[in-house]
């Protein structure tokens, strides 16, 4: 199973210590046997003994042993019979039967000789400890139906002796696991105890019952195999369930949880190795996002899309080597690569992943190109846990896209996430996840038609009052959110709220459209278009009443995907405005290529219109250019009457700014509109 691949690929934490430990256990066991076997046997062994011995050996065959590939330590059911032998006939017969069972299991399960030797030793020592305690608490007693049923052998003592066996056994095994695979010893021991308590506890505690049964009628003993078989089925099912919870059902890769666990297992081990001076102590998280997957899905259908993902999963797995490949959802994959020398090697791995996708995928005879972008974050330089690494790999991936590249290693300079901003982000996420959206509000700022003075549009602007910090600057907030997955939640919330508001206003705001600002990230997938289409349908709000404002930087990041989303929005009937016009680089090109309805002249030019001749010249030519291309022109940042008059002269269509109104909450806006209507009516009367 892939889950364990990461663990097994790890070199033994300390091979020589592990070998020494196994050797010590084996030698100690041989010593114990030499001392206690001679003279340890009763003069005669009844049918019950032979019956237990036969079943002990039968019980350690694959019919009863769950030795799935997911299993680090299979539980061997023979112990219920051998423990019964110990209670009834003493240490020596019990341990001999157990050794027989271990030998049979080793053959069945093809265990290496050292492993069989260790298992034998571990059982000998567990039985030796339990038998010694047994002799102390119940001197010269042997269990039979009378001692058990008459209370001559209190069950409490049997439980104590069983507990001793269980503790010693787990101590020996988890120390071996710890020496081989690493981790923190107390944690390994605790996990082993927890996992083993129920199955082995149940086996040990069934021993007194077996003894009693055997004395009533030996022929009843085989009935004990039925519960054993049931226990095996149950452990198998629960293993399957546990595995399914860590798997992506479509591709069979690990899911987010599996990756998280792989990192969580590796990190503490690394801390120790680093102390030991090992140099393979870096782990990389590679985050890969496919290009153009959405289009494949839309054009060729989800079935083809699924097959593409399966093919990609296969190629990534092939290229991952010792890495663990997982799918985070949609077309996002991640790879955890352990034991790296340095960041350079992580980068090479990432390049290898991209190379694996270079060949087009052939689906139904159709070659499909599946490039992608990879962001790389390396432990410990770029993060101390899975969450942090993922977040930084995400930042790196967007960096790559923004540069028009397909690979980037996380560079802290390009990350704007100071600890303060990260905590702000976490608070915002919490606010968004709470149903009432604590403190998140939209204000609306009117847009006025210069020719008539009528209010024809509103821009929705985010306001967030942080419970402790108070109002947060929206520009600052967007800058932080834009680099994270919180942006998606935020935009979807804003879209919902604006459309609900439009539905609620109804005729009161008839003919007025509302513009929503969207950021770079929102346009990378078609999700926003899906959401808008669904909400418009549900609320019966006309699509012409909604508008989206995008900036040029949104286009630079990933023009192909953004264009696909914009084209869909246009088909829906939602107008697109180019915001902050004049501040980007390639304005002319965008004006021609994009499905735009409107440009908004950036307020930095409009603010200087009345005082700076250069600004005035720029604003006038922008207006001319936009009008020549048949686009509506909005001037933002109109703060005074003089600017307003100059814009009227220059032939600008709409204006927005403090001269008319500041952004307002909905209730205040309705009052403002009513007042304004009254005064316009009064003027014209
Ligand atoms: P923007 O899209 O350019 O929004 C216009 C900004 O100009 C608003 O700032 C508005 O309050 C301000 N403004 C309006 N009239 C005047 C004026 O006469 N003079 C001056 N000096 N400023 C004026 P705000 O609300 O602080 O928003 C800042 C930026 O934050 C916005 O710039 C936009 O980029 C971003 N933003 C705000 N709300 C959202 C949102 O819901 N989603 C996204 N993605 N971005 C948003
Ligand atoms: Ca805007
Ligand atoms: Ca703007």
TrEMBL record:
The chain crosses the membrane at residues 20-41, 47-67, 79-108, 114-134, 155-181, 201-231. Residues 420-668 form the EAL domain. Keywords: Membrane, Transmembrane, Transmembrane helix. Residues 234-410 form the GGDEF domain. CDD domains: EAL, GGDEF. Pfam families: EAL, GGDEF. It comes from the Bacteria. NCBIfam families: GGDEF. This is Bifunctional diguanylate cyclase/phosphodiesterase. It comes from Dactylosporangium fulvum.
């Amino acid at each position: 199973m892939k889950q364990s691949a990461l663990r097994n690929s790890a070199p033994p934490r300390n091979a020589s210590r592990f070998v020494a430990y196994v050797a010590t256990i084996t030698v100690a066991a041989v010593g114990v046997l030499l001392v206690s076997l001679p003279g340890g046997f009763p003069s005669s062994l009844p049918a019950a003994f032979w019956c237990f011995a036969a079943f002990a050996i039968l019980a350690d065959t694959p019919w009863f042993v769950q030795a799935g590939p997911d299993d680090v330590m299979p539980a061997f059911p023979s112990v219920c019979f051998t423990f019964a032998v110990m209670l009834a006939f003493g240490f020596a017969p019990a341990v001999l039967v157990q050794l027989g069972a271990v030998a049979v299991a080793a053959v069945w399960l093809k265990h290496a000789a050292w492993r069989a030797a260790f298992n034998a030793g571990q059982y000998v020592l567990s039985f030796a400890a339990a038998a010694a305690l047994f002799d102390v608490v119940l001197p010269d007693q042997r269990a039979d139906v009378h001692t058990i049923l008459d209370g001559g052998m209190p069950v409490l003592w049997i439980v104590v002796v069983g507990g001793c066996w269980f503790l010693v056994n787990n101590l020996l095994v988890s120390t071996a696991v710890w020496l081989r695979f690493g981790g923190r010893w107390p944690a390994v021991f605790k996990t082993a105890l927890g996992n083993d308590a129920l199955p082995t506890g149940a086996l040990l505690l069934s021993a007194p019952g077996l003894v009693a049964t055997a004395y009533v009628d030996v022929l009843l003993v085989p009935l004990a195999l039925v519960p054993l078989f049931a226990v095996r089925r149950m452990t198998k099912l629960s293993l399957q369930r546990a595995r399914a919870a860590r798997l992506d059902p479509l591709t069979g890769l690990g899911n987010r949880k599996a990756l998280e666990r792989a990192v969580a297992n590796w990190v503490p081990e690394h801390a120790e190795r680093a102390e030991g001076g090992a140099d393979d102590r870096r782990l990389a998280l590679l985050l890969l996002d496919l290009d153009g997957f959405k289009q494949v899905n839309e054009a060729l259908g989800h079935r083809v899309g699924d097959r593409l993902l399966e093919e990609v999963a296969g190629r990534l797995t092939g290229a991952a080597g010792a890495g663990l490949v997982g799918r985070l959802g949609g077309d996002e994959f991640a790879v955890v690569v352990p034991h790296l020398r340095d960041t350079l090697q992580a980068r090479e791995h990432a390049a290898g992943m991209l190379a694996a996708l270079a060949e087009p995928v052939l689906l139904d005879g159709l070659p499909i190109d599946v490039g992608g972008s990879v962001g790389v974050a390396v432990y410990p330089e770029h993060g101390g846990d899975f969450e942090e690494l993922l977040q930084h790999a995400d930042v790196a991936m967007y960096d790559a896209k923004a540069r028009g590249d397909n690979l980037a290693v996380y560079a802290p300079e390009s990350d704007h996430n100071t600890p303060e901003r990260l905590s702000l982000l976490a608070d915002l996420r919490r606010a968004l996840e709470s149903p009432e959206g604590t403190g998140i509000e939209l204000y609306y700022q009117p847009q006025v038609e210069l020719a008539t003075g009528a209010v024809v549009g509103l821009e929705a602007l985010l306001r967030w009052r942080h419970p402790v910090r108070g109002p947060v600057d929206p520009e600052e907030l967007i800058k932080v959110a834009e680099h994270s997955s919180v942006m998606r939640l935020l935009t979807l919330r804003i879209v919902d709220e604006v459309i609900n508001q439009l539905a609620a206003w109804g005729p009161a705001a008839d003919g007025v459209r509302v513009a929503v600002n969207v950021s770079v990230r929102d346009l990378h997938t078609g999700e926003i278009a899906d959401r808008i289409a669904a909400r418009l349908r549900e609320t019966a709000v006309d699509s012409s009443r909604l508008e989206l404002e995008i900036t040029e930087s949104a286009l630079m990041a990933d023009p192909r995907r953004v264009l696909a989303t914009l084209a869909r929005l246009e088909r829906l009937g939602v107008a697109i405005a180019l915001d902050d016009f004049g501040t980007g680089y390639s304005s002319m090109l965008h004006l021609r290529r994009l499905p735009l309805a409107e440009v908004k002249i950036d307020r930095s030019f409009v603010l200087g219109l009345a005082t700076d001749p250069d600004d005035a010249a720029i604003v006038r030519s922008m207006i001319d250019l936009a009008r020549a291309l048949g686009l509506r022109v909005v001037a933002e940042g109109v703060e005074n009457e003089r600017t307003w008059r100059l814009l009227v002269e220059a032939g600008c269509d709409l204006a927005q700014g403090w001269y008319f109104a500041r952004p307002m909450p909905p209730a205040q806006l309705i009052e403002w509109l009513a007042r304004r209507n009254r005064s316009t009516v009064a003027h014209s009367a």
